[in-house]
Structures are given as C-alpha cells and as structure tokens.
Description:
By secondary structure, this protein is α/β, with parallel strands linked by helices. It has helices at 17-23, 37-40, 45-57, 77-89, 119-136, 157-168, 176-186, 190-196, 227-240, 256-270; strands at 11-14, 33-35, 60-63, 95-98, 101-104, 107-113, 140-143, 171-175, 202-208, 211-213, 216-218, 245-248. It is built from ten helices and twelve strands. The strands form three sheets. The chain has an eight-stranded parallel barrel, surrounded by four helices.
Amino acid sequence: MIRVMDRISGVGLGLRYSFAGEVLDSEFAPSWFEIAPENWMGRGGFFRRTLERIRERFPLVCHGLSLSIGSPDPINLNFLKELKSFLDRFEIEIYSEHISFSSLGGSYLHDLFPLPFTEEAVRRVSRKIKEVEEVLERSLVLENISYYWRPPGKMEEWEFINALLEESGAGLLLDVNNVYVNSVNHGYDPYEFIERLDLSRVVYIHVAGHERFGRIVVDTHGAPTIEEVHRLLRFTLERTGPVPVLLERDNNIPPYGELLEEVGKLEKICHV
Ligand SMILES: [Fe+2]
C-alpha cells in the first residue's frame, strides 16, 4: 500500500551520484526521484546518508537493472531478499524493471535483451513475476525496452506487452522515448503503438534523450529530450490522464540546474 504522502505525481528525475549532494541545497527540486537500487544498495558513508536525507523530503521509486525477469534462469533469491530489505528500509513501494533478460546460464550480460514475442514467453515470465512479487511483497511494474534486432515470435510487441500485463497483473512503466527509438529503427508508427497498448495499466512514464548515428537511433540517455518525444508524451498523457513522468539521464550528465530546466519543460507538457 502506498502511503498518501509518498504518492508520486508530476515530474521526477533519475537521481545520480554526480548531483545527489546538491539536491538538498537547491531551492528548486523535482517532485520525486527514481533510483537504480543496484547503485545504492551496497553504498555506505556519504551516499547512504545523502539518500536518507533525500528520502526524508521526497518520494522515491526504484528502477532496477539486473532482475532479468525474462531469463530462463531461476530468479536470484539472495538479490531479491537484499532488495526487499532496501525497499523496506527506505519505505519504497514502487519497484520497476524491464521486459527483457540480462543474464543467461548464470552469467550477467550487462545489457538488456528483448524477449521473444510469444504466448510461451507470456506464461513463463508471468510465473516469474508472481514469484518476485511474493518475495518483495510489492507489485512489479514493467517497462517496454528499446531493442536493435526484432526478436522472434508471431505477436506484435504491443500485443505481447498487453498479454503479459493481463496474465501477470503487473503495471506498465511506459517509456515513450523507447517507443520513439524503436519506431524509427523498426519502421512503425509510434502513435499507433501507444494507442494499441492497454494504457489503463500505466503507473508512470519515462522520457529520455537519444542520439542518432546515421539511420539508427540509439537510446543513450545521454542527450536532452527532443520535441518529437515531447509530442508523443503529450499524445500519451491526453489518453492516460495525469500520470507521473520521469526524466532519465544516465550519460553526459549536465549540471543539476540544466536538468531542473528540462524537468520544468516537461512539467509544462504535463500541465497542459
Ligand atoms: Fe526508461
């Protein structure tokens, strides 16, 4: 159960070490922050204390990197237990992950790979989602990823995502930049893709910047968000109603003030 004071709304920002110390001294701030638990779980000293102080003032959401929910490997129970105590300690209710796999045969691949868009994958991953939810005592929220080769399977991606959410009961973290990137690289209409998704499942939205290399767009999270992604965000919000939006920036991280300006731009889009 999410406590009322911790409900996220408006525009949040992905918290990075490079500006974590500035968050508490700044006059302006995003409404909430998202953290990658893997980056903070084992940290002590300055970073732990800073995170505790940030948590006293802001709602936090966790966005994981290494769950590998789509892998045929069994779930790493030790990791999940460690994660649960971190979520409990910081009173974090929302934990999101990616619809992907990032480990195989016990080895971590350090990237997110798409799942086959098949009924078999829907059933297999749904069973794993329930296992994870039982240990964490929280509902899982799952994000559509960007990918650079079309995985096998007769289903369309939107059809696969809808079936997975339906079968598992998980929520959707809709990354509109990932929809845009995939639409360019795989040649489809991003607006039609959004319209076909079950938008009643959206818990929150991601936006990020990408970079173009010739005909390929790469989801680098290393540049400001662009107008075409803003347009897709507006289109999505017109259909979902107000849902929280999170700005991701993981590379070429600019000064904190610049990120706050970008958060401000996104807030204007959210409040139209
Ligand atoms: Fe994302």
